[in-house]
Structure formats: structure tokens, C-alpha cells
Design brief:
This protein is mainly α. The chain contains 22 helices and no strands.
Length: 449
Amino acid sequence: MTALMAEAGASNKGLAKRMRDLAAQRGIALGTTHVAVQRWRGGAGIRQPAAGILRDVLSGQLGRRVTVADLGFAQDVEAGGGADRGYPLCPRDALTALDGLAGSDPAAAAAGPAAAEDMLTDTAVLTWLLARPDGVPVDTAAVRRVGMRDVQAIRTAGEMFMKLDFLYGGGHGHRALRHYFRHEVLPLLAASHSEKVGTALYGAATEIAQLLAWTAYDSGHHNLAHRYLVSTLRLTQVTGDRMAGARILSNLSHQATFLGHHAQGLRFARAAVEGARHHATPRAMSLYTAMEARALARAGDPVGTARAMNEAERHFEKAETGDDPGWLTYFDAAELQGELAHCFRDLQQHRQAVHHAHSAVTQTNPQYARTLGFCRMVLAQSLLLHGELEAAVDTASLALDEGDSLQSARFLGYVADFQQAVRSHDGHPHAVLFHDRVQRALTPAGEED
């Protein structure tokens, strides 16, 4: 703490006054004096909200993000005693939670239950639905000034990381993305900027944070991904970007449904649909309703699924009439066909599942290698359920061959599910060949007999 104060040119009295002023702006009564600052410098403990105010004051003075741990205090003070697992109260809490998650070891941060408690889930959804925009903080007393070129750099980096994610899976670039977010993106949010730049900056930062969550999810770190998404959802409230917020909710729905938490997935999806209505483009609404259909199909509700699928298709028919954000370009006709194929597969409607999965496979751009792998596996599962063992195994084998470079726990999950289904045909030559192929594909180099 002493070193950072010296770097910022802050005295005990000056720092105490800045802390009281910032707390007053936030409606917090803080009685910090120079005596308290001196005690902290001497090793005394600190509690919230003083810890967060101290962190934010020095972050603003230094023009970069400072954590409570950087100041020499216990890490649990930074996290608010586990508060990062719930819905952050303010943007600063969201940024603190995201910083802590990005700076932690994914395996350790991913520990714990994969799904949030229903009460925490409902709190996040309801708070977002009823929220008003916080407003972008402008012209703070920071040394660094951010411009649109800085924002464009973040967007360009986000596009590059997203391409890597689609091509090679979430495990490929997650570590580098964490470093980029902490050291290149977060410091800009503590710098000074105009309202126009700040709005664009928070939008770009949200995209990077969302991608961090998605790559964690794809890597199998489900608790970590959920915590990223909840904090990122809070970040969308700064500018009141309802489309971005609904996107986060649809991601939460996707994950919950994948993990078998159908009721939770349905709540997230319907919150996205209702929260973005009249704010989102037709393409975005198609995505949100497709997630609703996925959750309903996994829950075994054919009537509700049919309704949601029809809505998704109707919205998509108008997709070209909307001015879509860049992050939504991936959701094309092939992507929608893939979502519908998943629904029909889960409803055991094999003929329709084969039709839509085949359509998705033939239309998917090879740059979306992971998506293509998923669609091929759904096609293989559907063919198997339809009684076409040889075609199913051939399709799954092709998916495995083409997806050998994917670092995606989700893709491996699809393969494992298909392999389990094929076990009912054990002894059949095609089943034996596929088991051997999976064994070879999943055996690390140098470990073959």
C-alpha cells in the first residue's frame, strides 16, 4: 500500500479525504481519517466498504486497476467474503469480481456446484429485468485518457479470440484471454473518458468478459463460467444494453440446459426474451427463443418446444431487417438449424432431427469448426436413434477426425454420449471400430502401446 501511495503521490490526509469524497458520491457514510490510513500502512486490517473505496481511489489516481490484494490485504476482503458468487450490487463490484476470477487458477475457481442456487439465480434475473442504467462514469481524475482507438483495439482483439474459440475450442485461448482482460481491458475502465467513449468501452469490455465466460464453459469449468456470466450481466446495466444483457442470459440458459438444469435454463431464456423485447433485432430474438426451445426440449415438453421453435424461425425470417451487432453475426441459418436439430434429438423425433442436423452440417462455414463438430455429432446421434448404425458411426468418426484439434470439453462430452449409445451394439464391427477410433483419438501422443 505504501509503495502505491508513493507512486500516486498521495499523503495520508489527502487519501483519506479522497476516500470520504468518493464514498459520499456513492451514498456511503465513511469516517476515514489520516489515522486510519496510517494504521493500514502499518499492517492493520481493513473491512468493506473502506477496502473497496481505497482500491477505487488509488485505481483512479494511478490510471490502472488496483486490487485489494495489491494493497497487501487478504484476498477474501477483495471478494467480499464470497459476494462474487451472487449478483454484484454495483459496477465496481462486478469489475472486482471479474478481475478476481480472471486472476485465479481456473481449476480452483471452478470448484463447487456447477449451477447456482435458485434464489441467487432468481435474484440476478429479477434485478436485471427491473434495472435502470447506471450511467457511464465520465472524466474521472485518472492520469490516462481513453479514446476510440483504444476501444477498437479491444474489439479487434475480441474478434481474434472469438475466431480462435470457434476454430480450436475454448481451452485454446482461455489463458491468454484472461491475461489480456486483466492487463489491457480492466485498466482502461479505471481511466478517464468521455461518455461516448465510455459507452463503447463498456460494450467492448462486456464482449471480452462474455467470451471469457464462454471459453471457461467450453473448457468444462462450469462454476467459473457461471460466475463470469453473472458478473458480466451486471456490467451490461452500466449502459443499459438490453441486447447484450439478454445475450448473457441466453448463455446462462445454454449452460444450465447443457448441465441438465432445465427449469433454470428455461427461466434464463425467458428472461432474455422478455427483457430484450422491443430492444433486440429479429436475429437476436431468434437466438433467445431458440434457447427457450432447447430448454423445453430437454425438459421433454414437445408442445412448448414446437411453439418456441416456430417463434425462433419467424424471428429469423426477418433477420436481415435488423442492424445486428458484430457479436451476433455467427448466428446464421446453419446455427439455427443446429439448434433445431438439438431440440428434435432431445424430443426423440429422429426423422426431423436427421433432417435439420444434415442441413446444419452442409451449411456450416468451416471456420466454425467446433459448431460443425457438434452438428455432426447430433446427426450421428439422430441417425443411430433412427436405426442407421453404419451411417451414424461414419458421421461420428468424421466429426472425431475433423475435431481432433478442438480443446473443447463439450465436444468430448458429445463424443462420450455417442460412444455410450453405441455400446448397445457392442460386438457389431462398426461399433468396435468406433471404440478403437475414440481410444486412439483420446490417447495422448507418446502413450500408445
